[in-house]
Design a protein that fits this description.
2 domains; globular; about 750 residues; mainly alpha; Amino acid/polyamine transporter I
Length: about 750
């Protein structure tokens, strides 16, 4: 029994018992022995009030549960829900794609999202602190998350800058991308050739907005318009996060809810447009044979993975500002399903508008080809006998043209190709897969030019994109600043401003005339593989190193109820296996796909795939390596005691929790002393720990709280009590077994 125990003091002296060392270090109130549950009278059945450790340790907290939910929704629901998910639906079987997506959301998305929420809420630290605490040798997980957040934040805010530029360009009628510009050549006026070969919206995007070069090797200098737009984007982000959740939480009330207002408005307006039903029917028509293709499941898993923001550190950072008893399981399920239904809502909107656009383009095709047929009739290339009597060229319908096209193709079978007639099939227009910037800045903008009051809808659409991007950027910046603020005593405002200035300067790479190609490079290589590795290590560190049983017991103690036994098997076996398959498929995909980018060739007025030059390939490889480099470095450094385990940077909450655990152990020894029990034996009159039943139902586990001892063999408690006391070299502990 410790020499400074309250019981020893009571035996040696009749004076009032003072606080123990653990009480002082834990900053707790003195324990009244008479009211303690370990008192013999209390054990006999007297009701005793529970002593709680105060949670107010100076860490910021959310003002309300709604504010926290909106923050998580704003972070997870981003631009990918609008321009990536609809494309994947179209590409991978329409409505059939929803089946693998939903299955993988249940077995991968929700369990891993729940895991990140739980560890952040329990340990109340950012990504670096959380994984240092769970397993110091895997502390590089948090550092890799921070690196990926930095890479993604650099180019993601560029996209917000593009949206800001289009937003301000929308305040004019007609919209500047409605028609091709006219070039005056002396007394004659001609349409800009590059625009004439492509389209007005395509020309405005590539030439007037990006002013892009033809290859990534041609820098072309800074694009002043995009540089100013990027500066405005970083100013907005900086103002939103400068005071942490105190400022970003208030911003989320608008930035998280406004996109839903716009989406519902677009859906109602879209359903009133001609052809919208065709687009929605095309999207939801299931192609069941697609479900048997492995590629569909891989892309569904990747979309689930990135849609919830797993591995970025933003989920953990937001959750760390919660109360310890918050029901994070409910939060995980709620946010996941909100994300899923938002993706479906966005898909409905996109295909309703694209269905309208497809009808417009199909009618235009019919009109142009109808004029060709009239010319052939007037020049006697085609006989008037081929024209059915009910066909009226003044109001040529798509069905009449389809019939006319079939007749001419049958009669002129040998020379039909020379006529240059197009089939003008609506299905072909709907099958034109568009994603990313091509959807937002070309296809959607072109459709809005045909809307009545088109500037209003354009302003609403790009303002929605700005808010979607802002919500994700707030989560990304929180994932960067929270671990740094946890580890170092830095002024929050100063850190935020410095991060934004550095990010803006680094972001100048993306506002060169060739910057669009670097955005593609970073999007393809800086996050995909590193984040998958980060999340699989998160899963393994909790499920296999710390122990799924211990983690389940921690959740029961924290939430007040035991999560479903299904999570035990999902964390332990299903999720790691799925992630290993996903990372293997990603590596194979990267190996067999030629690394390159789609370059805009001005002379041809179209995109052409080009391979990366050697220096660009080296950059792609460097992005992956730099993002994952902290993982082996931290592991090796801590394996050989070359790096501190971070225990000297524990928060007040840690110390309170640890001191409370030590105090509880000390009080148990005091009870054994009072009741005359042998050391190490719990007296019969004192209830022991509540056993936790494993999934088999026949094995109980004496629960342990989250502690790095499981991985590292050293104790943060010792470091918190006496940082200067030398410790013995760490010894690894055998991972928890299933039995």
């Amino acid at each position: 029994m410790p020499k400074n125990s309250k019981v020893i003091q009571r035996v040696q002296s009749h004076e009032h018992v003072t606080e123990s060392v653990t009480d002082l270090l834990g900053n707790e109130e003195p324990l009244d022995y008479k009211s303690s549950s370990l008192n013999v009278g209390a054990a006999a059945g007297k009701t005793v009030p529970q002593i709680e450790v105060p949670e107010n340790d100076g860490r910021p907290a959310w003002n309300s549960k709604l504010q926290y939910i909106l923050a998580q929704v704003g972070f997870s629901v981003g631009l990918g829900n609008v321009w990536r998910f609809p494309y994947l639906c179209q590409k991978n079987g329409g409505g059939a794609y929803l089946v693998p997506y939903f299955i993988l959301l249940i077995i991968i998305g929700i369990p891993l999202f729940f895991l990140e929420l739980a560890v952040g809420q329990k340990i109340r630290r950012g990504s670096i602190g959380v994984w240092n605490y769970v397993c110091p040798r895997l502390g590089g997980i948090g550092m890799s998350s921070l690196m990926v957040c930095g890479f993604v934040g650099l180019y993601y805010n560029v996209i917000i800058g593009w949206s800001i530029f289009y937003f301000f360009q929308s305040f004019q009628y007609p919209l500047p991308w409605s028609d091709c510009p006219i070039r005056k050549n002396g007394t004659t006026a001609i349409v800009e050739p590059e625009c004439d070969k492509s389209s007005a919206t395509t020309y405005f995007w590539y030439r007037q907005t990006l002013n892009t070069t033809s290859t990534i090797a041609e820098s072309g200098g800074l694009n002043i318009k995009m540089t100013l737009s990027l500066l405005v984007a970083w100013i907005i982000v900086c103002l939103a996060v400068i005071r942490g959740i105190a400022s970003s939480g208030k911003v989320m009330y608008f930035s998280s809810l406004f996109p839903y207002v716009v989406l519902f408005c677009f859906l109602v307006r879209g359903l009133m447009l001609k052809g919208s039903v065709d687009g929605i029917a095309h999207m939801f028509t299931p192609k069941l044979e697609k479900m048997l293709e492995p590629q569909v499941w891989r892309e569904a898993a990747t979309q689930v993975f990135f849609a919830l923001g797993l591995g970025f550190g933003g989920v953990i950072a937001f959750s760390s500002y919660n109360k310890i008893d918050n029901n994070c399981h409910f939060d995980a399920v709620l946010v996941s399903f909100i994300n899923f239904f938002t993706s479906i809502l966005a898909t409905l909107v996109v295909f309703a508008v694209l269905g309208f656009k497809a009808n417009i383009m199909n009618e235009k095709c019919v009109a142009e080809n109808g004029e060709k047929i009239l010319e052939y009739l007037n020049s006697n290339i085609l006989s008037h006998d081929l024209i059915p009597p009910h066909v009226n060229f003044s109001h040529l319908t798509t069905s009449d043209y389809a019939e006319l096209y079939g007749v001419i193709k049958t009669v002129k079978e040998g020379s039909f190709a020379q006529l240059g007639l197009e089939p003008c099939v609506l299905e072909d227009e709907l099958n034109k897969a568009v994603q990313g910037t091509g959807l937002a800045f070309i296809a959607f903008t072109e459709a809005m030019t045909h809307f009545p009051a088109s500037p209003f809808w354009s302003v609403m659409f790009f303002f929605m994109l700005i808010n979607l991007g802002l919500g994700s950027m707030i989560g990304t910046m929180t994932g960067i600043t929270t671990p740094i603020l946890d580890a170092y005593k830095v002024q929050k405002e100063l850190l935020t401003v410095c991060c934004c200035i550095v990010a803006f300067l680094c972001g100048l790479l993306f506002v060169q005339r060739s910057g669009n190609y670097f955005v593609t490079m970073f999007d393809d290589y800086s996050a995909g593989l590193p984040l998958t590795v980060v999340v699989i290590l998160e899963n393994l560190s909790v499920a296999w190193i710390y122990g799924t049983k211990r983690f389940m017991q921690d959740l029961e103690d924290m939430l007040g109820f035991r999560p479903s036994v299904i999570y035990f098997y999902l964390w332990k076996y299903v999720s790691p296996l799925c992630l290993i398959v996903l990372i293997s498929a990603s590596v194979v995909e990267m190996a067999i796909s030629p690394p390159g980018y789609n370059a805009w060739v001005q002379e041809l007025a179209q995109e052409r795939f080009q391979s990366y030059p050697p220096w660009a390939l080296a950059t792609c490889f460097a992005l992956i390596v730099v993002a994952m480099l902290p993982l082996p470095i931290v592991f090796i450094a801590r394996q050989f005691n070359l790096m501190s385990d971070g225990s000297n940077k524990l928060s007040v909450t840690y110390r309170k929790s640890m001191m409370k655990d030590i105090s509880n152990l000390e009080e148990q020894d005091e009870a054994r002393f009072i009741l005359g029990a042998k050391p190490g034996e719990a007296p019969a009159s004192v209830p022991g720990h509540r056993p936790y039943m494993t999934p088999r139902g026949n094995t109980s586990l004496d629960p342990n709280s989250l502690s790095p001892n499981i991985c590292y063999g050293t104790s943060y408690q010792n470091a918190a009590i006496s940082p200067t006391t030398p410790t013995t070299p760490p010894t690894p502990v055998t991972p928890e077994s299933d039995s």
